[in-house]
Write a structure and sequence with these properties.
Blueprint lengths: L1 H17 L6 E10 L5 E8 L2 H12 L2 E3 L12 E8 L7 E10 L2 E6 L6 E4 L2 H11 L4
Antiparallel strand pairs: 1-2, 1-4, 3-7, 4-5, 5-6, 6-7
Helix pairs in contact: 2-3
Length: 138
Amino acid sequence: MKKLTIGLLVIFLSIAGCSASFEPELTRIDVQKISEEGKNDGEEEIIALKERLKKIQQAFDKIKWSPNTKPEMARKEDIIATFFIQEEKNMPETLYHYRIWFEGETATIISDKENEGYGRLTDKEMVKALESELFVRE
């Protein structure tokens, strides 16, 4: 009886340990700055500092997405950002690509993520924070 109880306890603890939820995590962002002529000017940056990633994620949380919109932009994007998101424990990151335009006090974002699509960020403070975090620092 004692062996059965110990066996059940081990099985229960194994199942409970495996079912712990895993929160997706932004692990890094690769940023390419696009020149005014619409070319990749060679400036690239990898953002991996948790503090910077958190600020960028906070700005992205404020974006209003329109998933079924097919926008046409008059000029090339200012930034191309590739987000590396760890969605499952012990699995490779999933990559999401964002094209970002900064227009004064707003930002326009086009995502390849199916449930996002076209988005606008209109919170002035968040736009400023996003722009300062994404542009390559010299």
